[in-house]
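$ ./design --mode recover --in tokens.txt
reading tokens...
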């Protein structure tokens, strides 16, 4: 739906940059590779250390961009598989995932699967059409980090045909300045890129180093007359920091005429979108180099009497409803000696975020993961969310605050210990860990007032019998048999009615 195509035939840029440009801040990852590579002046790092699962594949082709020649895949199965990246809490990021199937699994149809950002299903990855046309595909989203880790995960969905494996070719997580797209409430929403265009251009994609954040501005040309700019704009004067290069060309019409642009060149599903348009009067700077026009989208006034000068200007709509074909019309004020003009535009789909698991529970689950020597291999990303893809064996509550309510890890040959911090999972109702090889003492679980079921039987727990369990008000089942505990249940536990105890 919001796939944007990235042509494989994009030539290698000869980036003989005159001025050194500041490096991109963030993670540029060449998935499935053992080596760092340099492409278009950017170093893409190998992905070791950013993900704990998956396998590497190499495509033996020489006609594709270097970053596409390797990929990481996650063999078919339940659970999500994540890249986890340390980030600054509250930071804003452009996340771009790139996919090129290349028949890595010996098949000829790319697998279909979900991609997930933190606790939210971001979109389905369906590269079927692009692959058929010899193209790679990329997806982009702008999000903020609500804690010190950003996770980007892949998971099978109902359309993933066994044994097809979700895969990824490259992952970019680029720090954006806080002013970018800042009219959006990123605590609640992410912005999925639908299109980002450089009007009146049939040249190359504009990207890094022209765009400091390596956003891709695709050339867009239609039948309208084009003009070249005679004045420079200053990118930093715009909150969204559009690259100066996209102002070099503009679409226009002659004096007195309306300018109509059918953009984007595809139909949009009915939704609310963030729309930003960028304009500049292309003439030499002078007191008379300005023009006034009204911007309409689908016949609605988007901005009345916009005064466009040689310094350039942007207008945006934060939640603009669009559906189907979109038409942008610029209508000049009747006394204007020149026609209207437009240089660039961006449209993002607004994605409501599903939130994340309660932070305290996330922390405990991380501690538990570390104290188990062999935790399930899908234990990464958010423990409970998205709902469709929680960690294996974890049950969670719904609602505004998502809590861990059950652990069901029976018979997994788990080794390691149960950390004392588990006593902070205060929404826990069921703790089922029977038939593993857990060692060490049973931590004090008495703060877990919601606990109804405790199955710790058939392990190697040692130490004194956990007497404090007798105080749990809701306890219905307590299985502790076949461990190495000393002592037996206290009298008040033996005397309790309506409780199954095996010790
Ligand atoms: C994937 O895309 C192809 C081509 O657009 C389409 O025919 C197919 O139905 C899509 N599959 C799913 C599961 O959406
Ligand atoms: C967006 O950023 C600009 C520049 O830092 C600032 O002036 C403006 O107030 C911000 N707008 C919002 C809605 O935060
Ligand atoms: C625009 O910027 C370029 C590169 O910095 C410079 O060569 C050119 O003279 C500038 N043009 C104007 C009109 O200032
Ligand atoms: C421009 O559009 C307006 C509003 O649709 C219309 O009234 C006007 O006639 C148009 N001008 C021209 C020259 O087509
Ligand atoms: C548009 O802006 C220019 C430059 O600031 C100014 O000289 C001109 O009067 C403005 N036009 C209108 C109609 O406000």
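writing sequence...
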């Amino acid at each position: 739906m919001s796939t944007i195509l990235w042509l494989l035939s994009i030539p290698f840029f000869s980036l003989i940059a005159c001025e050194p440009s500041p490096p991109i801040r963030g993670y540029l990852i060449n998935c499935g590779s053992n080596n760092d590579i340099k492409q278009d002046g950017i170093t893409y790092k190998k992905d070791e250390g950013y993900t704990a699962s998956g396998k590497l594949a190499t495509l033996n082709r020489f006609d594709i961009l270097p970053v596409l020649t390797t990929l990481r895949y996650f063999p078919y199965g339940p659970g999500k598989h994540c890249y986890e990246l340390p980030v600054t809490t509250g930071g804003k990021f452009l996340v771009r995932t790139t996919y090129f199937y290349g028949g890595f699994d010996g098949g000829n149809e790319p697998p279909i699967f979900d991609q997930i950002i933190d606790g939210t299903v971001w979109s389905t990855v369906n590269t079927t059409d692009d692959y058929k046309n010899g193209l790679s595909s990329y997806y982009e989203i702008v999000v903020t980090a609500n804690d010190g880790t950003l996770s980007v995960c892949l998971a099978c969905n109902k359309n993933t045909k066994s044994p097809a494996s979700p895969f990824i070719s490259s992952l970019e997580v680029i720090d954006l300045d806080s002013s970018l797209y800042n009219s959006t409430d990123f605590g609640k929403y992410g912005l999925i890129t639908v299109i980002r265009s450089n009007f009146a251009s049939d040249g190359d994609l504009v990207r890094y180093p022209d765009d400091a954040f390596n956003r891709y501005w695709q050339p867009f040309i239609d039948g309208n007359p084009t003009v070249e700019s005679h004045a420079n704009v200053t990118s930093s004067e715009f909150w969204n920091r559009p690259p100066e290069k996209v102002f070099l060309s503009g679409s226009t019409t002659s004096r007195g005429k309306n300018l109509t642009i059918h953009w984007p060149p595809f139909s949009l599903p009915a939704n609310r979108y963030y729309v930003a348009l960028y304009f500049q009067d292309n003439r030499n700077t002078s007191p008379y180099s300005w023009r006034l026009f009204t911007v309409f989208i689908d016949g609605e006034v988007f901005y009345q009497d916009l005064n466009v000068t040689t310094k350039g200007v942007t207008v945006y709509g934060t939640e603009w409803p669009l559906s189907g074909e979109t038409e942008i019309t610029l209508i000049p004020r009747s006394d204007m000696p020149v026609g209207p003009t437009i240089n660039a535009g961006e449209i993002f789909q607004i994605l409501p975020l599903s939130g994340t698991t309660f932070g305290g529970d996330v922390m405990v689950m991380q501690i538990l993961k570390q104290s188990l020597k062999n935790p399930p291999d899908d234990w990464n990303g958010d423990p409970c969310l998205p709902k469709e893809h929680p960690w294996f064996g974890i049950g969670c509550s719904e609602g505004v605050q998502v809590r861990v309510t059950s652990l069901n890890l029976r018979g997994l040959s788990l080794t390691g210990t149960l950390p004392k911090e588990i006593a902070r999972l205060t929404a826990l109702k069921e703790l089922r860990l029977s038939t593993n090889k857990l060692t060490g003492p049973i931590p004090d679980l008495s703060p877990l007032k919601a606990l109804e079921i405790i199955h710790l039987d058939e392990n190697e727990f040692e130490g004194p019998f956990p007497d404090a369990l007798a105080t749990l008000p809701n306890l219905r089942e307590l299985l502790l048999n076949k461990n190495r505990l000393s002592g037996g249940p206290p009298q008040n536990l033996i005397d309790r009615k309506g409780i199954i105890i095996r010790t």
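exit 0
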